[in-house]
Specification:
Layout: H1 7-16, H2 19-22, H3 24-48, H4 59-71, H5 90-93, H6 96-105, H7 122-133, H8 135-146, H9 151-171, H10 175-192, H11 196-209, H12 217-221, H13 226-250, H14 252-261, E1 263-264, E2 270-271, E3 286-287, H15 289-309, H16 321-341, E4 344-345, H17 351-360, H18 365-381, H19 391-406
Antiparallel strand pairs: 1-3, 2-4
Helix pairs in contact: 3-7, 3-8, 3-9, 7-9, 7-10, 8-9, 8-10, 9-17, 9-18, 10-11, 11-13, 13-14, 15-16, 16-17, 16-19, 17-18, 18-19
């Protein structure tokens, strides 16, 4: 039997496998992350530091409060203190189920303080927050399956992905970043399978949750036929425009100020060499918005390069594994640009580039193992309190660059990046 002719049978057999069996690795990794994360925050770290207070992510409480206001349809208060919300409203929307459950259970939505050292709300909000962050692990596994990675590689990828996800979920409490990147990855998968309408809506949902994924959007657009770009963008813009428009209509000044200035505090987080150049705001904050515009421009430059290399994907009903791997790698580069130009850095900002680079490397042990080692090392090294504007930032950017280098795509082989409708392309280098 020809190699290519066996793939429809393989795909049919995969569909017959129960979902929980097919996604066993991300299910296990997410469950382990919940158990270990809750144990560390409520038992291990408090005992290690001789404290009765649980070690909780402070950033989560403001977003929970924003979710409560959204649930109450108090849109005018979405971007007013003490929510501290500066991302799009989708970040609050994904937390509304747990806020509704907490309200029904009579759990108070009060932040941790000396009088509330062990907030009961964390016992339900923590597992939920980590669980929805796991969407990134499920998307990574689906992509690895599409790339024909072996089950051993997928298991390793799930474990490494969970370790890297620790920073954004357990340590800092920003599930919106993980959900947005997970939705973006599913959007790329749909694009690779020729489902452009589905891809556009998934991309739009990801942007509505966390606009950082906009950095990868130009690379994705470079794979489309020019006549399809306008329709794709219209669908992708709809969720964010609808949510942000509703918030702006309720309170224009607060919404505009929060979303455009993107304040961050160099006295609290990690200053970088770009801090002196950033516009200074009240209370010692600096604006991150202008520097992120630079990152978007450079991401468009990545799209020009990637578009030339991926032009054969335009109009193809189903991409080859080589084409999808290359898209993932360029998306990782684009997402990593944020960390290069931020005036103030937080450890979890590194996560999107690291997470997507891991998937791009997942087809080969020779690339996957060093990429995973570097990604995990950068993730936990970033949690240090070292605040040198040049030292910490330079070390993290170097680690990020080395991770991308290890995951980089080999020289393109003379293989087709298209396949006839209904037939997957033959694997390249898997």
């Amino acid at each position: 039997m020809r190699v290519g002719s066996c793939y429809p049978d393989v795909m049919t057999s995969e569909r017959r496998v129960p979902w929980a069996t097919r996604r066993l690795f991300p299910l296990g990794a997410t469950a382990a992350l919940i158990v270990i994360g809750m144990a560390v925050s409520t038992l291990i770290e408090p005992r290690a530091f001789g404290s009765t207070a649980w070690t909780l992510p402070d950033d989560l409480w403001g977003t929970l409060l924003a979710a409560q206001r959204l649930l109450e349809l108090h849109l005018g208060g979405l971007y007013t203190q003490p929510t501290g919300l500066i991302t799009f409203p989708g970040a609050a929307l994904i937390l509304t189920p747990i806020v509704a459950l907490s309200d029904a259970a009579g759990l108070a939505l009060t932040p941790q303080d000396a009088q509330n050292a062990q907030p009961a709300l964390w016992l339900v909000a923590g597992p939920y927050m980590i669980a929805i962050s796991g969407v990134a692990l499920f998307a990574a596994d689906a992509l690895a399956e599409r790339l024909r990675a072996s089950r051993a590689k997928r298991a390793f990828l799930a474990a490494a992905g969970a370790l890297v996800l620790w920073s954004v979920s357990v340590e800092w409490g920003h599930p919106e970043d993980a959900v947005a990147v997970g939705l973006l990855l599913f959007s790329m998968l749909a694009l690779a399978d020729g489902r452009q309408t589905r891809s556009a809506w998934l991309a739009g949902a990801s942007v509505a949750v966390q606009p950082l994924v906009l950095l990868a959007l130009p690379v994705m657009l470079a794979t489309l036929e020019p006549r399809r770009i306008a329709g794709y963008l219209a669908r992708a813009a709809t969720p964010a425009v609808a949510l942000l428009g509703a918030a702006a209509a309720a309170n224009w000044s607060a919404t505009y100020a929060a979303v455009t200035s993107q304040p961050n505090w160099p006295a609290i987080d990690h200053p970088t060499p770009w801090t002196p150049l950033a516009p200074h705001l009240a209370g010692g904050a600096v604006a991150g918005g202008p520097s992120r515009a630079v990152a978007v421009l450079l991401a468009c430059g990545c799209a020009l390069i990637a578009g030339h290399r991926l032009r054969a994907a335009r109009g193809s009903p189903r991409w080859s594994t080589a084409t999808l791997r290359e898209l993932l790698w360029w998306a990782a580069v684009a997402l990593a640009l944020r960390s290069v130009f931020e005036p103030v850095m937080v450890a979890y900002y590194l996560w999107p580039g690291l997470a997507v680079a891991l998937i791009a490397a997942g087809w080969s042990w020779r690339r996957l193992i060093p990429t995973a080692v570097l990604a995990v090392t950068v993730t936990f090294a970033a949690q240090s309190s070292w605040r040198s504007p040049w030292g910490w930032w330079a070390a993290m950017v170097l680690g990020l660059a080395l991770t991308l280098l290890c995951a980089s795509i080999p020289a393109r082989r003379a293989r087709p990046t298209w396949a006839p409708a209904g037939h997957p392309a033959p694997p390249a280098g898997v």
